[in-house]
Amino acid sequence: MSTVTATFERWAHGWELTIEGEDEVSTQSVTLSKARQQVRDYLDTITPEVDHSQWAVVLKPATDSALADRVSTARQATQEAAASQERAARETRELVAALAAQGFNGSDIAAVLDVSRARAGQLLHEAGARTQSAA
Prior knowledge:
Layout: E1 3-11, E2 14-19, E3 25-29, H1 35-46, E4 56-61, H2 65-101, H3 106-113, H4 117-134
Parallel strand pairs: 1-4
Antiparallel strand pairs: 1-2, 2-3
């Protein structure tokens, strides 16, 4: 997936979006919530032979570098948190499979992980499906 960066700056009718690249071009959007799609649509008009529908559009403030830095820091922290959560989920699934292999039942696994029995059951089901598909 390709990525494009667009800086945004408020103007009288919404937001001006400057698309970074060799030829900086601009478009406008009434709201920032629609800015990413507006950037993709604009790119489609200037290079119709390219499918921009799946492109990632990174928005950053045009004039306030301190704000841009904070946006970047927050995004990075969010990405790191998501990666940590994925690692934790993988570790939990592997632990559940190991506990089940040692004869722990769902109630025991729930107690070890400090989760509800229903959640332990879900984890056991997921671990079983993964174990079977790996075989």
